[in-house]
Write a structure and sequence with these properties.
Chain lengths: 269, 227
């Protein structure tokens, strides 16, 4: 039977996410790098007491809607709906305004483990790579070193950091195929390829699913072995109302045909 | 005297960014933090080629685009859309911090709330809100070969930001090499803080009045030239 990691809907993609699960959420700060539809699906599923691992704690959909983002949800959807018990995070707040994470944290309604960004990335990589931990300079002499083993290496002090393991990693990529191979676009790689393969189950939300032969093996960033499920975003909602998943596929296919026809016509001319 | 100095005209953000950018040497790789530092990419001295790195996974980007004109998939660490530059390349966060922590970065420019006499940096805890956000700041402060801080010399209330000892939780100890403020350029050395330049219209004595640690006046200390 041909290998096929493609699932048809976001709800199906997160069907086994459970109460108390640890979930890595890819992306950085801006919403285009974030698996927005998977976050929405997890929110819809109604699971609680989650531990999340992410770079930021979200700005909220309203801000991204102002920018015209077709998929505006970020980490804030799980935070504001009280689905998160503990956040392992590098940049939880904004210097510019008070986000929902900060409000909950002030009220003692959410736990926080703040990790320097490079240490966060490397701790995730350690889980992915099967490494038991690593020594690093970042944080020596600061609050970050509290409770951690220290070691002098080449005359300098280092602290021991341990891997972060998770049940699920949800990530966003530009294109994916049925093997789970992924490519990204621009600065939207960020934590996405780092988290792929660091959890027991990695679920990739992609802008477009393509035929297996379409991705250039020289440029694939995430090898399919790290990915268990691939799910495609619907086409952005237009002013005609929301487009359902199946309709999106149809219209995308039609769009492809139109392009092909136009190109053929050009060639003939 | 102090009250007058608090109100006295100081350099604006653009001029501070211009002064910082003069530190960039040909071929150096530079990371720019949020706020005034990101403005520095607009003031690279002519004839010098500098590579800008951003922690979210890009090296070799150009100037910030006009609002609404850029590609949302090409942003700096502040989320501002930027122009690509020749030789640009993209990578993930892990690779980005391998670069930063592995000592492959020549300069990082960051803002700060406080800097101590010994070069301790406080820039992750927002003082008014007592809540922190570390982000990439700690790795940058530990990893870059040179840490340049650009900030206002005093707080809005007129309090010292350049302190004998840090009051807030520190981002990294003894890491700051150079401080560019809206009235001075100060080098942090083993012997103490050395005043190198003062803003036009200011005197070393006036800069000292707004600085808690005692400044060593450099033999070649001079007025900042901005032309």
């Amino acid at each position: 039977m041909p290998i096929n990691k493609i699932v048809d809907s976001f709800d199906e993609a997160v069907a086994d996410v459970f109460d108390g699960a640890t979930i890595m959420v890819g992306g950085f700060g801006t919403v285009v790098s974030i698996p927005s539809c998977l976050l929405e699906a997890i929110d819809r599923k109604g699971v609680k007491n989650l531990t999340t691992v992410s770079n930021a704690s979200g700005f909220g959909a309203d801000i991204w809607k102002l920018q015209g983002a077709p998929f505006p949800e970020d980490m804030d959807i799980l935070i504001r709906n009280n689905k998160v018990k503990k956040a392992i995070v590098s940049a939880p707040i904004s210097a510019l305004y008070v986000n929902n994470f900060e409000k909950l944290w002030r009220d003692g309604k959410i736990e926080r483990e703040m990790v320097p960004q490079g240490t966060l990335a490397e701790r995730i990589r350690a889980a992915k790579a099967g490494i038991g931990g690593f020594y690093v300079r970042t944080g020596v002499g600061t609050v970050v070193e509290e409770g951690k083993e220290k070691k002098i290496i080449d005359g300098k002090e280092y602290i021991l950091e341990l891997p972060i393991k998770a049940d699920f990693a949800i990530i966003h990529a530009h294109k994916g195929d049925r093997f789970g191979n992924l490519v990204y676009r621009g600065t939207s790689r960020t934590f996405n390829p780092v988290m792929a393969g660091a959890a027991k189950v990695t679920i990739a939300e992609v802008d477009e699913i393509v035929e297996a032969s379409e991705l250039d093996p020289e440029t694939i960033v995430t090898p399919g072995v790290y990915v268990q499920r691939v799910v495609q975003r619907p086409r952005p909602a237009s002013d005609k109302g929301e487009i359902k998943d199946s309709q999106a596929k149809e219209s995308l296919a039609k769009f492809g045909e139109d392009i092909k026809r136009a190109t053929d016509k050009q060639r003939r001319a | 005297m102090r009250e007058e100095l608090i109100k006295k005209e100081k350099l604006d953000r653009q001029v501070m960014a211009l002064r910082v950018a003069r530190e960039f040497q040909d071929g150096e790789m530079v990371n720019l933090g949020q706020g005034i530092p990101t403005l520095c990419s607009n003031f690279v001295p002519s004839g010098r080629e500098v590579i800008f790195q951003s922690e979210n996974g890009v090296m070799g980007y150009g100037e910030i685009t006009l609002p609404g004109e850029g590609d949302l998939d090409l942003v700096n660490a502040s989320g501002q859309t930027v122009h690509p530059a020749p030789g640009m390349c993209l990578f993930d966060n892990c690779e980005s911090f391998v670069m930063i922590r592995g000592g492959h970065l020549d300069i990082t420019v960051m803002g700060a709330y406080q800097v101590s006499e010994k070069g301790d940096l406080c820039n992750y805890m927002v003082p008014a809100r007592q809540v922190g956000t570390i982000g990439g700041a700690m790795d940058l402060a530990f990893g870059a070969k040179k840490v340049i801080i650009v900030m206002n010399h005093i707080t809005k209330e007129g309090d010292y930001r350049i302190k004998k000892k840090p009051e807030y939780e520190i981002t990294a100890p003894h890491c700051v090499s150079l401080l560019v403020t809206d009235i001075a350029v100060i080098e942090v050395t083993d012997k103490g803080m050395v005043l190198k330049e003062y803003a036009p219209g200011w005197t070393p004595a006036e800069v000292q009045e707004l600085t808690e640690p005692t400044l060593i006046i450099a033999p070649d200390c001079c007025e900042m030239t901005l032309a």
